[in-house]
């Protein structure tokens, strides 16, 4: 099987060296300064749900025709002993030629990487130098057939089409409610053309932030402060029942 060497990095809280706090604590040799700065800007220091078994997927393009697929997990206690958990983001950075092998589909990258042991919390998060991840040159899973998906009915299919419609209007979207974001994304992405996929950014659980302008958010709920945030950033709210809030 052909293997491709994908750059990887880890963003988390550390007191190592001159800097203290959240930073890029480890990276492989191909992560340059520009990429490192963008990874720091997009990576979270907090997540909405900090249960130890909870994790989220984030995906977004960066400069130099590169695309990032990241998994954010809850680690051990944060170094400052403030009683909070360490949030760890495990990052893969794919060049365009590498991402094209996966049909520009971040879900296929996630599934394949995790199947071979990637995007997982390392035993030692303080290792500053990382090797590139040897990722199979082709995905280990197949994406759903978009022609079959477009003919599907039901609430999930309707929600998927509503998201696609908002993306076609160049709008940002927040899906509110009890949904399976991985299933929705796995079925949404194959219905987008390649140009849309290379520009698509999404998070399955991060709160909206000015520094991280994701195109698609998945949120279990939206209280008054969250609705104010969504409105201020002009993010369209779609309820899980597919009605615009």
Task: Characterise this structure.
Strands 1, 2, 3, 4, 5, 6, 7, 8, 9 and 10 form a ten-stranded mixed beta sheet that branches. This protein is of the alpha/beta class and 245 residues long. The longest helix is centred in the middle third of the chain and has 14 residues. The protein folds into two domains: 134 residues; 94 residues, no CATH class. The mean pLDDT is 88. It has eight helices and ten strands.
- Distance between the first and last residues' Cα: 48 Å
What is the percentage of strand-forming residues? Answer: 25-35%
Order of helices and strands: EEHEEEHHEHHEHHEEHE
Q: Based on CA inertia axes, which overall geometry fits?
A: globular
The total domain count is 2
Largest sheet: 10 strands, mixed
Which stretches of 5+ consecutive residues score pLDDT under 50? Answer: none
Rounded to an integer in angstroms, the radius of gyration calculated over CA atoms is 18 Å
Q: Percent of residues in helical segments? A: 25-40%
């Amino acid at each position: 099987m052909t293997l491709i060497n994908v750059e990887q990095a880890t963003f988390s809280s550390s007191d190592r060296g001159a800097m203290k706090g959240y930073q890029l604590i480890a990276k492989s040799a191909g992560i340059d300064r520009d990429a490192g700065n963008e990874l720091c800007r997009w990576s979270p220091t907090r997540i909405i749900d900090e249960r130890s078994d909870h994790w989220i997927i984030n995906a977004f393009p960066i400069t130099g025709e590169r695309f990032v697929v990241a998994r954010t997990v809850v680690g051990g206690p944060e170094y400052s002993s403030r009683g909070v958990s360490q949030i760890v983001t495990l990052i893969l950075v794919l060049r365009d030629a590498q991402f094209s092998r996966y049909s520009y589909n971040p879900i296929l990258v996630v599934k394949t990487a995790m199947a071979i042991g990637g995007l997982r919390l390392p035993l030692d998060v303080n290792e500053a130098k990382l090797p590139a991840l040897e990722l199979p040159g082709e995905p280990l899973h197949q994406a759903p057939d978009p022609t079959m998906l477009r003919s599907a009915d039901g609430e999930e299919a309707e929600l998927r089409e509503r998201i696609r419609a908002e993306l076609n209007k160049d709008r940002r979207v927040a899906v509110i409610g009890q949904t399976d974001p991985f299933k929705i994304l796995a079925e949404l992405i194959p219905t987008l053309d390649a140009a849309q996929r290379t520009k698509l950014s999404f998070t399955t659980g991060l709160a909206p932030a000015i520094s991280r302008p994701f195109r698609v958010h998945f949120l279990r709920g939206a209280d008054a402060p969250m609705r104010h945030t969504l409105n201020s950033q002009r993010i369209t709210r779609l309820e899980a029942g597919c009605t615009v809030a």
